[in-house]
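Summary of Year 1 activities. Much of the first year was spent building the evaluation harness for sequence design. The harness presents a backbone, in tokenized form, and records the residue chosen at every position. We chose the following record to illustrate the format because it has been used consistently in internal testing since the harness was completed.
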């Protein structure tokens, strides 16, 4: 495969050389922006173009207008309820995964396993082009984010206090991944290919064809990664009978992941006011992991009570496919439209784990076990939105949204003295079914009043949850109705400065296996299950933001406060004999508040920087579970320095660090990452990129449990260091968007004093 990639790189270079020998057309001075008109001010409070530059164009379903592209930076956009960051200039995004790119986005934290959080809260709702994705909503979303190519993403929208237009799912807020789109008539496309150290490589192709009424687009991406980790653990405790014990474990994991992602879209202007759209996607993710390790347990006097070595070979896969159909009708007036969509999404996963254990204490013994875990998840969503402009610059939006999820989980187990003599183990065989239906009605009203802009909203949701442990003949239900109010206030101080205050109520619902009471034995000393008594987590969120933007630089300062009830986290207890049992529990109440600072600007004509820090205090009150009230301060941050050494050469250095965070029973430790990148542009259509990921090999952390009866430390040392080189070639050009938001019209769309 590497030979094929190198051939593609050389062919691309040869094509570019021929292209450079021919006269090149002058760059276009205008574009058709497509999704929304540029009637409102840009996100910095200034018009996107002078009035004389705007010309009426085809008044089709998207209110298409023609706008002259200006030279001002568009890396950052803000509105009264969201912030949007351009990641196309992040060199890590050209060779790395979505998880790599998100590490350079303010407010977002990504740990070494790809798990995403917003300001320390991992309960994040991730959307793709404004739509929920099954593959990014389950327990494996961190792994998927590490395999999804970032090169297909144009911007990342961060909504820590979304308006009522959006589902309140995800107590931390919403991250919307906005994919790259073409706006230029004719044929456009491109190809990129990267080769990395080890057996790593990735490749992507995209193409689009746009006429007056029809737009067709498609892209395909393949990726292969190697990964590995060293995990060392130690445990000391007192079991329920009062006997002391200690444990030591070591393991080494190595594996390969492969991903293939296909996407296609169609837009057709049926009439001057009606647009029909269809979108299909397919993703396949496979992992082959081998691990080996050892375990020892001792009693209070230090005598060896148990010792064994273990090898695992895990072959896992995740498939996801979906289809969306949309009808959009526009009416007279800017942003006056009705949009209805129907989405069907299916996911299936498979994990086949063959374990071989060799005991040396208390007596020699060989054991083999094969655990097959299967899941199927079907999601259907019907959504309708009506958006209407109001007098004096106001806007009203209302909509209906219903989502149904049906999931089934199977755990099949076989044991025996060897891999060749396995027999079914009914005690570890389980089937669990779960479904959730959420119906929602919402309305938002936005109105500028002089320098003040008010955005108020209310969302009503009816939730129906059903689950059944088919094997254990245990079933349950959760039915509840909730109102979710939101309020955003924006005050424009002057052309450069604004203030924003906001309030929202959000929810984090347990998902699928979180409810499953079946206890899965992962090892002789490790047992895990869900909790059928889990209640949804409810959060109240308050924010105040000061923004300054002038001459291509911007500064943000955000004070925030969150208070949560029924928060759920993993809790570990001792069942006796050193067997540790982990389940999900509602830990009670927690509070979280802090200050986030963001700065972006230039240091001379060729140097630019992006810096952000988040310092916050967190308290978890789990006293209802017999645990201590824990609290502490932490800081995380990121920074990047970009040097445009020549008009064709860009060098980039990025760093990210986290000082760790308090948890219900202990703390997750600190870690940091340094990335480097270089790009050379041979022409506007061909560029060479080289990147180094985790060049100092510091993407590692410790986690601890510290209670009166249980003390545990785990040292996690993954190997994520890699170097990539590659080429990217485009033809036809991809026109930049207008100065509006990429998804949705809510929250001001860039207008008002919050902009």
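For this record, the design step produced the sequence shown next.
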């Amino acid at each position: 495969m590497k030979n094929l990639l190198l051939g593609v790189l050389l062919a691309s270079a040869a094509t570019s050389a021929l292209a450079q020998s021919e006269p090149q057309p002058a760059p276009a001075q205008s574009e058709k922006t497509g999704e929304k008109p540029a009637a409102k001010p840009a996100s910095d409070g200034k018009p996107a173009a002078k009035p004389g530059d705007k010309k009426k164009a085809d008044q089709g379903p998207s209110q298409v207008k023609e706008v002259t592209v200006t030279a001002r930076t568009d890396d950052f956009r803000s509105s009264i309820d969201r912030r949007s960051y351009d990641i196309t200039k992040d060199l890590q995004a050209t060779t790395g995964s979505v998880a790599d790119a998100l590490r350079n986005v303010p407010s977002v934290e990504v740990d070494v396993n790809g798990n995403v959080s917003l300001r320390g809260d991992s309960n994040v709702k991730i959307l793709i082009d404004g739509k929920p994705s099954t593959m990014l909503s389950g327990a494996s979303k961190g792994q998927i984010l590490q395999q999804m190519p970032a090169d297909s993403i144009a911007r990342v929208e961060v909504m820590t206090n979304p308006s009522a237009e959006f589902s309140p799912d995800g107590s931390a807020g919403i991250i919307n991944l906005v994919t790259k789109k073409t706006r230029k008539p004719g044929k456009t496309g491109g190809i990129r290919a990267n080769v990395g150290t080890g057996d790593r490589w990735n490749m992507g192709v995209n193409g689009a064809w746009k006429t007056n009424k029809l737009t067709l687009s498609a892209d395909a991406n393949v990726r292969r990664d190697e990964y590995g980790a060293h995990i060392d653990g130690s445990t000391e405790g007192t079991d329920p009978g009062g006997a002391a014990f200690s444990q030591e474990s070591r393991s080494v994991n190595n594996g390969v992941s492969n991903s293939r992602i296909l996407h296609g879209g169609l837009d057709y202007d049926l009439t001057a006011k009606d647009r029909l759209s269809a979108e299909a996607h397919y993703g396949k993710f496979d992992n082959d992991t081998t691990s080996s390790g050892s375990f020892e347990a001792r009693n209070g006097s230090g005598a060896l009570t148990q010792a064994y070595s273990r090898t695992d070979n895990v072959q896992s896969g995740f498939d996801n496919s979906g289809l969306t159909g949309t009808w959009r009708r526009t009416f007279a007036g800017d942003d006056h439209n009705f949009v209805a969509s129907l989405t069907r999404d299916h996911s299936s996963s498979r994990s086949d784990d063959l374990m071989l254990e060799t005991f040396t204490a208390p007596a020699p013994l060989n054991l083999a076990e094969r655990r097959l875990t299967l899941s199927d998840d079907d999601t259907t969503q019907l959504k309708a939105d009506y958006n209407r402009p109001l007098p004096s610059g106001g806007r009203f939006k209302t909509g209906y949204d219903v989502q149904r999820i049906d999931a089934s989980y199977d755990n099949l187990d076989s044991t025996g003295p060897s891999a060749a003599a396995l027999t079914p183990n009914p005690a570890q065989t389980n089937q669990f079914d779960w479904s959730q239906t959420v119906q929602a009605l919402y309305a938002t009203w936005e109105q500028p009043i002089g320098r003040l802009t008010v955005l108020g909203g209310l969302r009503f949701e009816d939730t129906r949850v059903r689950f059944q442990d088919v094997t254990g003949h245990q079933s349950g239900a959760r039915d509840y109705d909730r109102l979710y109010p939101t309020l955003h206030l924006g005050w424009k101080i002057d052309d450069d400065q604004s203030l924003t205050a906001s309030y929202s109520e959000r929810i984090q619902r347990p998902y699928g296996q979180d409810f499953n009471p079946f206890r899965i034995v992962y090892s002789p000393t490790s047992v895990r299950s869900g909790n059928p008594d889990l209640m949804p987590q409810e959060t109240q969120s308050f924010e105040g933001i000061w923004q300054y933007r002038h001459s291509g630089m911007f500064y943000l300062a955000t004070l925030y406060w969150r208070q949560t009830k029924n928060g759920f986290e993993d809790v570990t207890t001792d069942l006796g004999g050193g067997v540790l049992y982990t389940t999900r529990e509602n830990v009670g109440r927690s509070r979280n508040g802090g200050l986030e600072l963001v700065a972006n600007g230039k240091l001379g004509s060729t140097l630019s920087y992006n810096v952000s820090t988040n310092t916050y205090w967190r308290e978890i009150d789990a006293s209802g579970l017999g645990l201590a009230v824990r609290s502490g301060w932490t800081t995380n941050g990121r920074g990047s320095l970009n040097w445009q050494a020549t008009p064709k050469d860009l060098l980039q250095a990025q760093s990210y660090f986290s000082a760790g965070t308090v948890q219900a029973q202990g703390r997750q430790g600190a870690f940091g990452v340094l990335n480097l990148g270089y790009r050379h542009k041979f022409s506007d259509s061909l560029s060479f990129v080289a990147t180094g990921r985790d060049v100092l090999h510091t993407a590692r952390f410790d986690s601890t449990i510290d209670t009166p009866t249980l003390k545990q430390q785990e040292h996690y040392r993954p190997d994520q260091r890699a170097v990539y080189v590659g080429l990217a070639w485009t033809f036809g050009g991809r026109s930049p968007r207008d100065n509006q938001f990429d998804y949705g019209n809510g929250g001001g769309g860039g207008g008002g004093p919050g902009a």
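The helical segments are 2-20, 91-95, 98-102, 141-145. Quantitative recovery figures across the full test set are reported in Table 2.
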